[in-house]
Write a structure and sequence with these properties.
Layout: H1 7-16, H2 24-29, E1 33-39, E2 42-50, E3 53-56, E4 61-64, E5 69-77, H3 86-100, E6 105-107, H4 115-123, E7 130-137, E8 140-147
Parallel strand pairs: 5-6
Antiparallel strand pairs: 1-2, 2-5, 3-4, 7-8
Length: 149
């Protein structure tokens, strides 16, 4: 686990995911956690988890999670380390950490065409519960949510 003062590692995490630029330390200050896998001093992968009020930038919204719930903000494996089971290992280790913290439900989201992420989430035991679509055409915004289960 890294903290908000681990600036060198935070910089590497933010380099791996552009949308996180300048925001990881604040997420950690707000009570989130970030598990990193290291190869020496290099971040091979990471998983950021949020609690309480979580932002969902892909669909431009937020949600308030109660006690015992968490949201996977981002899981990323550096391209050089993909295909070796690191994503699954990050998930299993974050599951153990969340269990120690009393988290009973762990949510996440991904694009429906992100096959590598869908494959990973299914492999480690996640279940799809809904398909959410956000559409913005000029000034008109619309949502649709279809329950899968």
């Amino acid at each position: 686990m890294i903290g908000p003062d681990d600036t060198a590692l935070i910089s590497q995490v933010e380099e791996l995911e552009e949308w996180l630029q300048g925001g990881v330390a604040a997420k950690l200050d707000d009570g989130g956690v970030c598990l990193v896998a290291l190869d020496g001093e290099t971040v091979a992968g990471f998983n950021i988890v949020a609690f309480g009020r979580v932002e969902m930038p892909l669909v431009k919204t937020h949600r308030d999670f109660g006690k015992g719930n968490a949201w996977s903000e981002q899981i990323t494996v550096n391209n050089r380390y993909r295909g070796k089971g690191l994503g699954a290992e990050l998930r299993y280790r974050i599951f153990a950490e969340l269990k120690e913290r009393g988290v009973r439900r762990f949510y996440g989201g991904t694009l429906s065409d992100n096959e590598p992420n869908l494959k990973l989430t299914r492999k480690v035991g996640f279940t799809e519960i809904a398909d959410i679509r956000y559409c913005k055409r000029f000034t008109t915004k619309s949502w649709s949510c279809t329950r899968v289960r």
